Amino acid sequence: MNVIPKLFIAIDQNNINEAKKLIQMLPPEICGIKVGKELFTACGPEIIEWIQKKEFKVFLDLKYHDIPNTVKNACFVASKMGVSILNVHALGGKDMMLAAKEGVDKSTNNPYLIAVTLLTSMDSSNLKEIGFTSKINDQILKLSKSAIDSKLDGVVCSAQDIKNVKSMVPKDFLFVTPGIRLTSSSKDDQKRISTPSEAIEMGSSILVIGRPITEAKNPEAVLKKIMNEIS
Ligand code: C5P
Asked: Which of 23, 146, 190, 227 is the most exposed place for a label (fewest CB within 10 A)?
């Protein structure tokens, strides 16, 4: 399996020059780059190639959620791009996740395939709103179990969710946690947040951080502060 950094920076930008400027400020020996829907929609696969040429590992965060055949083929194509991590929504169900795994296994690149459980921007009232009657913890447990049964490599969840799931996962299972904030007063649209050190203490394997770094006056300084906090 590929070796990946503990920290991925979410470059949520649609201007290629701004994105490149930000990426060039970051050290590839310390962090990877997360390419999400905004950057990928604006810039396409070329941006991934450009980032990889700069020696960064790429997490392609497109959260596939579609019929199994479509997801299988999308995962195959994404794997061929040489990304280190890609993901699907666990809400797409086990058949879809098994198909995703099949797509990844068809390529020779072996990226980590992980499943988003519940977005860190959602809380129990959002869950109710979309018709789910389970408690948030139970829902995350169900979705994680389904990802484990589908032989996925990990889940995306909030740091607080890890303790509920940890006891039933294989040793090298990945817990990827967004919703990282340096202080609890700066949430943006995230609801289930944690600081970098809290996330590591709670068992996070990889932290995903966007705006606290990308919108900082001095992104390098914030990155350094975070690295000091977690190392
Ligand atoms: O700017 P911020 O640190 O909130 O960015 C978090 C990143 O992680 C965003 O790119 C978002 O799409 C992604 N993400 C998330 N919650 C998930 C899965 C991915 O916030 N459950």
From this structure: 227
The terminus-to-terminus CA distance of the chain in angstroms comes to 23
Is residue 2 assigned to a domain? no
The answer to whether the predicted template modeling score (pTM) of the entire model surpasses 0.90 is yes
pLDDT digits (tens, 9 = 90+) for 34-92: 999 999 999 999 999 999 999 999 999 999 999 999 999 999 999 999 999 999 999 99
**Does ligand 1 have an atom closer than 6 angstroms to the CB of 169?**
no
Q: Is 144 part of a structural domain of the chain?
A: yes
CATH of the domain at 181: 3.20.20.70
Residue 210 within any structural domain of the chain: yes
- Let me know if 63 is a catalytic residue: yes
**Which is the closest atom of ligand 1 to the Cα of 12?**
10
